[in-house]
């Protein structure tokens, strides 16, 4: 089955999405997500100018070979732009292969290992009271796992807290908006949130929290220790892990489970953390980590070291990524949880999909392929709008991690 053509579709139904569509000589097509929040056009160019001309004429069934061709063949390996572009090709090809087999994609991976995929939602509020109410709303919706973020007194805006409760989108301006950060205030406040949540809702719901790369290892160790009585499902991105060995410091002090990896792109970015058993959940996802083909290898390495998957699933990952990820998650033996930040209604109509939510779980559906399509006419009504992720400074003006 030959690849006859491919095109990139950029649409902004509330936020930007980049989608690759690959056509074949058998009339089948497949789609893959190539969205890189705040840097979308670099992946568009990578695909249009370099990848698409190479893959036209190739055999669409040779997914592994095409992956290796794009990875080894570009010489400049790894990185978010390259790996998102490769992921889009890979996802579209798995979609095509599953359609050709007339099966949902998870059947090709090895079949379902579970009935459905546990997901976590995002509860957030300006203060502890509001966050408590929001967590309650997610419990009422049937969620078994909930991420909780709250505003910190004395800091004007905090990561993870938004007005649009269901559809949080941090890329909010043409130029990066400026946030202010205080580690001292955050470290004092956060345990109070989880104390309040456990006092109100007990220990049944899984509770998660995202630190978003803001602490040093010893500060992260202190936070992990102070959260131990509230038995979190995980503490995410507690430090910026450019220096991965530094995670030993956190591990030495706390048994709060750790999740890292949403900004990783290859198995090589995960290797130290997994092999040295410095994390409990790996956050790599289909779109930013080279597609199903590569994610499968990461999960295989993780399985050897008791590390479970916890795929990134913020709104900047399109429904196409979500569909592929759910097929992957239904199969992957060492599944942990899937993040599920809901897309807006406009986004959901641009990307008709077979996946559905029920009682805290998502199922990918049983449509042939990954079960997600794109309505190109509708997509064309929402042109690209430049949007950047924020930057973050300490109270004295020093540049910090957002
Ligand atoms: O855990 C998460 O979902 C995040 O850390 C994201 O909200 C992240 O900030 C965005 O994906 C950035 O585009
Ligand atoms: Mg995160």
From TrEMBL:
Biological processes per GO annotation: amino acid catabolic process; carbohydrate catabolic process
Reported cofactor(s): Mg(2+)
Keywords noted in UniProt: Carbohydrate metabolism, Lyase, Magnesium, Metal-binding
EC number: 4.2.1.8
rRNA-binding among keywords: no
Pfam assignment, any one: MR_MLE_N
Transmembrane segments: none
Catalytic reactions on record: D-mannonate = 2-dehydro-3-deoxy-D-gluconate + H2O
Metabolic or biological pathway: Carbohydrate metabolism; pentose and glucuronate interconversion
InterPro entries, per the entry: D-mannonate_dehydratase-like, DgoD-like, Enolase-like_C_sf, Enolase-like_N, Enolase_C-like, MAND, Mandel_Rmase/mucon_lact_enz_CS, Mandelate_racemase_C
EC top class, as a word: lyase
SUPFAM superfamilies documented for this protein: Enolase C-terminal domain-like, Enolase N-terminal domain-like
Domain of life: Bacteria
A GO MF term: magnesium ion binding
Ranges where the Mandelate racemase/muconate lactonizing enzyme C-terminal domain occurs: 128-257
Family annotation (NCBIfam families): ManoateDhtManD, PRK15072.1
PANTHER family: D-GALACTONATE DEHYDRATASE-RELATED (PTHR48080), STARVATION-SENSING PROTEIN RSPA (PTHR48080:SF6)
General function of this protein: Catalyzes the dehydration of D-mannonate. Has no detectable activity with a panel of 70 other acid sugars (in vitro).
Family classification: Belongs to the mandelate racemase/muconate lactonizing enzyme family. GalD subfamily.
Descriptive protein name: mannonate dehydratase
């Amino acid at each position: 089955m030959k690849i006859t053509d491919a095109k990139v579709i950029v649409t902004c139904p509330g936020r930007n999405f980049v989608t690759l569509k690959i056509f074949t000589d058998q009339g089948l097509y497949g789609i893959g997500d190539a969205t890189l929040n705040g840097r979308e056009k670099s992946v568009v160019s990578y695909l249009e100018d370099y990848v698409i001309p190479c893959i036209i004429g190739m055999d669409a069934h040779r997914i592994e070979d095409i992956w290796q061709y794009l990875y080894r063949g570009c010489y400049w390996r790894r990185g978010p732009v390259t790996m998102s572009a490769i992921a889009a090709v890979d996802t579209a090809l798995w979609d095509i292969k599953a359609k050709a087999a007339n099966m949902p994609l998870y059947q090709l991976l090895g079949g379902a290992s579970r009935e459905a995929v546990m997901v976590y939602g995002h509860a957030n509020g300006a203060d502890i009271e509001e966050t408590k109410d929001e967590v309650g709303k997610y419990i009422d919706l049937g969620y078994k796992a909930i991420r909780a973020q709250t505003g910190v007194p004395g800091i004007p805006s905090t990561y993870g807290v938004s007005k649009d409760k269901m559809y949080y989108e941090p890329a909010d301006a043409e130029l990066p908006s400026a946030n202010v950060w205080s580690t001292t205030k955050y470290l004092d406040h956060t345990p109070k949130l989880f104390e309040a949540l456990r006092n109100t809702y007990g220990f049944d719901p899984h509770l998660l929290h995202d630190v978003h790369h803001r602490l040093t290892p010893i500060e992260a160790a202190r936070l992990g220790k102070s959260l131990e009585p509230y038995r979190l499902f995980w503490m995410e991105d507690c430090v910026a892990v450019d220096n991965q060995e530094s995670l030993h410091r956190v591990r030495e002090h706390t048994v709060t489970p750790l999740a890292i990896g949403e900004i990783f792109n290859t198995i090589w970015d995960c290797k130290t953390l997994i092999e040295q058993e410095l994390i409990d959940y790996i956050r790599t996802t289909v779109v930013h980590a080279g597609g199903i083909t590569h994610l499968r290898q990461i999960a295989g390495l993780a399985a050897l070291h008791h590390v479970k998957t916890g795929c990134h699933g913020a709104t900047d990952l399109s429904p196409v990524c979500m569909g592929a990820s759910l097929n992957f998650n239904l199969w992957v033996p060492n599944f942990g949880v899937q993040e599920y930040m809901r897309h807006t209604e406009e986004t959901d109509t641009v990307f008709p999909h077979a996946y559905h939510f029920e009682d805290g779980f998502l199922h990918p559906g049983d449509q042939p392929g990954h079960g997600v399509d794109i309505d190109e006419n509708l997509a064309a009504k929402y042109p690209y709008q430049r949007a950047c992720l924020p930057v973050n400074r300490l109270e004295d003006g020093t540049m910090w991690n957002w």
